[in-house]
Amino acid sequence: MIYLDHLASTPLDPLVLEAMLPWMRPEAAGNPHAAHPAGWRAADAIEQARGEVAALVGAQPGEVVFTSGATEANALALLGGVPAGGGGVVSAVEHASVLGCLPELRRRGHPVTVLPVDGAGRVDPAALDDALTDMRHSSIVSVMAANNEVGTVQPLAELAAVAARHGALMHSDAVQALGTRMLDMAALGLHGLSLSGHKLYGPMGVGALIVRPPFRPVPASAGGGQQRGLRGGTLPTPLCVGLGAACRLARERREEDARHIGGLRDRLWQRLRDRLPGIRRNGATDGLAGCLNVTIPGIDAADRLLDLPDLAVATGSACHSGVGEPSHVLLAVGLSAADAHASLRFGLGRGSTAAEVDEAADRLAALLAG
Ligand code: PMP
């Protein structure tokens, strides 16, 4: 299997697995919220992990709220974070876990604005300025750090500065960016940030919302006073430890990974371009190191990939819908539905190799030529 779908999920790093395993063994039993030595040991491990998560994004350990993943973190930020009487502003290329909150916000009477993007997938800070001027309510702005389909990196510092001028809170879904890019919440002016374990070579089923004052979302669940009441429930020690280890590795390897992965992405593009006349690249060329989104006009990408079962790449049909809807991101950057269906997303990662990239390009070219 040639695995080039790291934007959908990254394999667990062996060092992360090693850090987690002791906490999955029977002798590690102990509720981290229990007041006895077994509980305290687990709580200590979780607090260490909290520190690693915070360090990755320039936050304080006490600002980390562990969640089940970024979907939950985004919902907590958006549904719990819109100020009373306030509104929400998001971009058109946000992940479904953000866009999916909008109908509920509207139902609750909050005004919601969806900002368009340019052909590269970028939000214009001037458009945010206009939206916040029109809104005239206290608001929360949520714009992702990097897009999961076309890899476009947003001008977060500029957007956060605009939000600050209007007294709005600024949240960012940073799921895709953290593996290869440095994001410092304080320096960027972010009040909220979502991240996910399984996009960072950590475990599935865990993520975090980082909340910096004055941001304090209203908890989604009742009962259970854990995590300062923001997200009740017994913390899963192995998953939290795994997320902490993944964040530490990301901090240590980010630059090296970005170089390695970005080099492979350029190699893949070169090779595809040489072999497939008419192929086009989507999104910004200075985007996420591991993302290459291309359109090969005229093909039905999902259908053709069935002939390459040993190649894991994503198509331009929204994977979450399961019904072959064209990707809302590709439509937002100006592709037709037909071109969206003719698009493929390659997601390169830490373990990807030049040999895999070459073979993937050659197999795809051979298939489409035949
Ligand atoms: N945001 C982005 C940008 C993503 O790519 C994903 C995962 N596809 C999510 C949020 C949701 O993350 P999780 O799987 O942890 O719920």
Explain the layout of strands and helices:
Layout: E1 2-3, H1 14-20, H2 37-56, E2 64-67, H3 70-79, E3 87-91, H4 96-99, H5 102-107, E4 112-115, H6 125-135, E5 139-142, H7 156-165, E6 169-173, H8 185-188, E7 192-196, E8 207-211, H9 237-275, E9 280-282, E10 291-295, H10 301-305, E11 311-312, E12 314-315, H11 328-332, H12 337-341, E13 343-347, H13 354-369
Parallel strand pairs: 1-11, 3-4, 3-5, 5-6, 6-7
Antiparallel strand pairs: 2-8, 7-8, 9-10, 10-13, 12-13
Helix pairs in contact: 1-9, 2-9, 6-7, 9-13
Bound molecules: 4'-deoxy-4'-aminopyridoxal-5'-phosphate (PMP).
4'-deoxy-4'-aminopyridoxal-5'-phosphate (PMP) binds at residues 69-71, 95, 97, 144, 148, 173, 175-176, 196, 207.
Could you explain the architecture of this structure?
The chain has 370 residues and is of the alpha/beta class. It folds into 2 domains: 2-8 and 253-369, Aspartate Aminotransferase, domain 1; 14-250, Type I PLP-dependent aspartate aminotransferase-like (Major domain) (Aspartate Aminotransferase, domain 2, 3-Layer(aba) Sandwich). It is 38% helix and 14% strand. It has 13 helices and 13 strands. The chain has helices at residues 14-20, 37-56, 70-79, 96-99, 102-107, 125-135, 156-165, 185-188, 237-275, 301-305, 328-332, 337-341, 354-369; strands at 2-3, 64-67, 87-91, 112-115, 139-142, 169-173, 192-196, 207-211, 280-282, 291-295, 311-312, 314-315, 343-347. Helix 2 runs parallel beside helix 9 and helix 9 crosses helix 13. 4'-deoxy-4'-aminopyridoxal-5'-phosphate (PMP) binds at residues 69-71, 95, 97, 144, 148, 173, 175-176, 196, 207.
